[in-house]
Each structure stands twice: as structure tokens, then as C-alpha cells.
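call fold(seq) -> C-alpha cells
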Amino acid sequence: MRPGNTEIIRAHEILRRDPLKNVVLLKFLDMALGRSNLHQVVDGDDVASLLLVDHRFSSFDQKAYSTARVSVVISSTRPELTREVLVFAPRGEPLIFKLTDEADRLVVAEEFPLKRRTAYHSYTSSRFAVAAPGADVEFALSDALSRMFMAQDHDPEWLGSMIGRNRAFISVVKEDSQPLSACFAFHIDGAIWEIGGVYTIPTRRGEGLGSRAVRTALAELARRRCVPRYHVAEENTASIRLAESLGMTRFLTLTHYLSEA
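ret:
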């Protein structure tokens, strides 16, 4: 089904039964609303969800996976249902599968040859964080901050729009009014917010400034009684150490696989 009207309401109700497990689907549904196809197989409390994301609307996937036009994101509570919902995956073309469960990988591998490409870890925290000295929460995107986030391929126009709708904020460490390190947090669904875009200017790295920015973002989310999600590539050991040093725990790993036609 295409997300929209009563269908999207029902889809969200089902995914919100376990929002952290389904955080990737909820995020893509919000960011690619009307530009993705969601299919679900439901059996009582069990559900398998398959989301087709068009790479034309994902700058990351366009750059990372230029040979494929679609990503297939699957979240399932039972392998038998994964097998049923898999009929909605395209055939005869290269695909990127994004999977959170080894049982799903085994089911997909029955029909599609899979080559592992990378993985991303998601962390969260239920601890109450205290804002770090010298770090502030801001609700305006300056030129300097835009350049910092653009260095990581984040779209300042999208972030500015999210801030304008009260769905994002920036945590920044400054010196003499100049940003040294920053990150942003944005709303995914319900109480879940994602922290991303952590960046420190090269001349000041290794001083713990990024940790101060993230800690302050966590404190702001805790103040709002929101649930943080910190998303990091498996090879980014520095960012993983940062998350763990702040008491965050891993709750999900999203593994990307290429299936060549």
C-alpha cells in the first residue's frame, strides 16, 4: 500500500507497537511520505513490514548505491511473515536490502543473492543527562552551522524547515561566538528523536567538544521526555566511543546488502 489517508494511520499504529525496533521504517515513512511503498502482513500480534524507498528521493542511497534504484527495508517479528511480505520486492534488478534481523537475512537469501556492504548501529539512553558547560541549544541555522552540516552532506534547507516546524534543534559549542562543534536533533515519530550531524572543526578535534554537544542534546531531549536515537556507521569508532562514553546502549543494527540482478 502507499502511505496515505487511513492506510498510513493504520500502518503507523502497527509500527508503533514497537517503535524502537521499527524506527528505520518510521523515519523513512516520514521523510519519503508519498514517495515510498509500504506493504505489511499481519497475523495477530505478529507483523512483517516491507518498505520500498526510491533512491531518487535519498541522496545518501544515490551516492552509495548508484547501480540500484530501490532500497528494500524489512522489519518482521516472524520469518514466515517475512517470506510472505517478500513477494512485494522487485525482481530482475539490483536491490539494496536493509535488514535488522539475521532471521530476515536468511529468508531473503533464499531468493536473492546478498553481498554485505555496511551496517549502522542505533543507540539510545534512558538516563537523565545534564547539559555540558559551554554548550547551548539553538533554534536558528547560521551560515557557519550550515557549512558544518553540509560538510557531512546534510541538507541545510531540510534542517531549517524542520527547525521552523519545531521538529528540530541544534546543540552547539561556541568560542567567541564562533561554533566549534555542533550536532542537531530532529523528530522521527512519537517520542523518538534522532541525534545526528555531529561535527567538530578539524583544528579543535580531540578536545571532547563533540561529546559536549551530544550530551547537551541528550539533556534537552530528556527535559522534553523524548527518546533519543543516535545513529552511527559501524566503521566510525570515534562516534561509537562517544555514544558509549555518554552511557548510551545499542538497541539495533541495520545491515545493508546488495543483491545484484
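The first helix runs from residue 5 to 15.
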